[in-house]
Design brief:
The complex is a heterodimer. Chain A is mainly β. Chain A is built from no helices and eleven strands. The relative contact order of chain A is 0.33. Classes of the chains: A mainly beta, B mainly beta.
Chain lengths: 113, 115
């Protein structure tokens, strides 16, 4: 079955450590996105990519990095520069063009301990 | 700047009744699409319904329908015969159809279903 998979579901990080969240899709979608969700904040865009080897900063990119070496994969690294990383992270993908709905992964809950 | 506004942070409705969630947006584009997503307690985002702006007819999916008013830039979601499983966060979304090609979400409306 086609879909988008995020792993792990829960992740704990010590302060000062970098951590990478995985996002893989087999929907043959060109566009992929990372969102952060905090209570009362809705979805805030971190990074997005429309094509392999290219990506753009979203509204809250500071402290995060991404790569897009393969069409299927769009990992997000939360660096030690991110001052408040505890949040729920959602990855999504879609066909290019605004007529395509986004498909979402199950999300990763990141907690800094 | 393109924005999506959901003015109702929370709403409640009695089971089997009808409820309408509001969404307004701002765009300079003439052809675009609008979406409503549902996020239940599992936090999995699920597409509920989509509307194509060039279509006059309001989209319908079973108990879910939209009231799309293009001139007013309004895109409300109506849920008929509300069920306990409809309890969730609902997000209105608008994908930019330009070189940015990103999706903008509203802040969401939390819907409670009262038994």
């Amino acid at each position: 079955d086609g879909g988008i998979t995020q792993s792990p579901k829960y992740l704990f990080r010590k302060e000062g450590q970098n951590v990478t969240l995985s996002c893989e899709q087999n929907l043959n979608h060109d566009a992929m996105y990372w969102y952060r969700q905090d209570p009362g904040q809705g979805l805030r865009l971190i990074y997005y990519s429309q094509i392999v080897n290219d990506f753009q900063k979203g509204d809250i990119a500071e402290g995060y990095s991404v790569s897009r070496e393969k069409k299927e994969s769009f990992p997000l690294t939360v660096t030690s520069a991110q001052k408040n990383p505890t949040a729920f992270y959602l990855c999504a993908s879609s066909r290019q063009g605004g007529d395509s709905a986004a498909f979402f992964g199950q999300g990763t809950r990141l907690t800094v301990v | 700047a393109q924005t999506v506004t959901q003015s109702q942070p929370e709403m409640s409705v009695q089971e089997a009744e009808t409820v309408t969630l509001s969404c307004t947006y701002d765009t300079s584009e003439s052809d675009y699409y609008l979406f409503w997503y549902k996020q239940p307690p599992s936090r999995q985002m699920i597409l509920v319904i989509r509307q194509e702006a060039y279509k006059q007819q309001n989209a319908t999916e079973n108990r879910f329908s939209v009231n799309f008013q293009k001139a007013a830039k309004s895109f409300s979601l109506k849920i008929s015969d509300s069920q306990l499983g409809d309890a969730a966060m609902y997000f209105c979304a608008y994908p930019l159809m330009n070189r940015d090609d990103k999706i903008i979400f509203g802040k969401g409306t939390r819907l409670h279903i009262l038994p």
